[in-house]
Model the fold of this input.
Amino acid sequence: MSVLRQLYSLIIPDIWTTIISLLIGYVVYYLAKFYYQYYSLPPGPFPLPLIGNLLTFRTKHHWDYIMRKLAKKYGPIFTVYLGNSPQIMITDPVIARDVFNKSDFSGRTQTYFVKLIGDGVILADYGPNWETRRFVAHAAAKKYSKNERLVNVVVDCVDKTVETMLKTIGPNKPIEPSDYIYLTFLNILANSAFNEKYNIDDPEFKKFKYVLNDLMYESGIRFVLWEYSKLIQWIDYKSIKNIAKHFDDCREIIIEKLKNHYKDYYSGIERDFCDTLIAAKNYALREGVIGSKQSVAEYLTDDKLGMTVFDLFFAGIDTSYNTFQWLLLFLSNDLNVQKKLRNEISDKIGDRLPTLDDRQRCHYVMAFISETLRFRNVVPVGVAHKVIVDSKIGNYRIPKNMTAYVYQGFIMRNDSNKYWTNPNDFIPERFIDSDNHYMITRSQQPAFIPFGIGRRVCLGEKMAIADLFLVLTRFLQSTQNYDIVLDSHQGLDADPNNSDSISPN
Done:
């Protein structure tokens, strides 16, 4: 026994010494690798291991305010660490256009959020799968955005919403319009996508609204932490599983609606976006426009096309809904702006239904929409791009799998006056030329990028602009007997210009 004790006294201390030495060695290696990466990337605030720059955002200010300060301090390319993950931010439109036009920066990082939403078009990683579905979805969206049926859909949805508001609340009374606005855009997309409508008490409407809008707000900061921390995901396993089930339910509803379209689909008759998508798919299969017909068929299954429709819902409703709330706040805040909008609509359209061609006549309406998109962009950092091969931004080497963003909100409201005169003032006239015509923003305003930039620019841009124009004009026609004003006596901020939030209140 004494021999065993001696062996124990000799071996055990050595084992602990070895374990401690290995742990110290690993920590030293991890810190050396972490900070080597930090000093090799574009400049940014000094990160701490594991938490990165998260403490930088622990203030009373909105995160967009903090990001703007960092952009001013560190220049056109800077790095922010969210946990251990470095995020490259680009705040110059020339650099952003050069970078994001390359396929090198066309990937998508497969984060928690991306996996939750699913493999559609917007969040799909770069490759033949994405290219094929992007081709089909873009063709369908471009075609449908010019479809005059969209006018009847919008008019019907807006008229019913205004009628419901007046019946439920009554005229000349303060309202909380968010649910009604959401109902309008959900109905427009539901009717456009698969020829269905909802009322505000419909269980399916409530399901979509909860999943596509309310659920993430309920999760709050936890949702952000799940994106960058596996540990927090593990701790919140039950919540994450419950959220995933809600998203799965919505996906199944939409995919089933697409599949049902095949039962009465006729070539040449396109009742809605699902029909247009099926037609675009059939064209791609027939012509083999991208890759072989076999590979096209592999990437265009009904489940994958259904995810394209889900993309339309998830991205289209939320951004249009929030943007329209800003439109309402700005026209409510300034009755002179509201009067100009109403006068132009009365002069150019009158009492007839608005059409898509009216965008060429209603220059101030289009300028007002563009200024709202510039001044209060609801997706200020856009969607993450993944670097798919080792590449460069300027003089900086950017390794494969790094995440990069174009900080479009900063570019469109930059205090330096480099791209805009008086950028922190709401001035729709900045989009009107000397002939009182709405300017073609892509060429005349190169820093106007509310839908992103480059190869992964927003798929639904044309549909979103068409929807916003038609909804706004019809809403103002339907309320021509009223002034829309903010009720500043109910604790509301009467000036939306004072808000630093990307979401209207």
Residues 1-40 form one domain. Residues 172 and 488 are 14 Å apart (CA to CA). The beta strands are 77-82, 85-90, 385-386, 391-393, 396-398, 403-406.
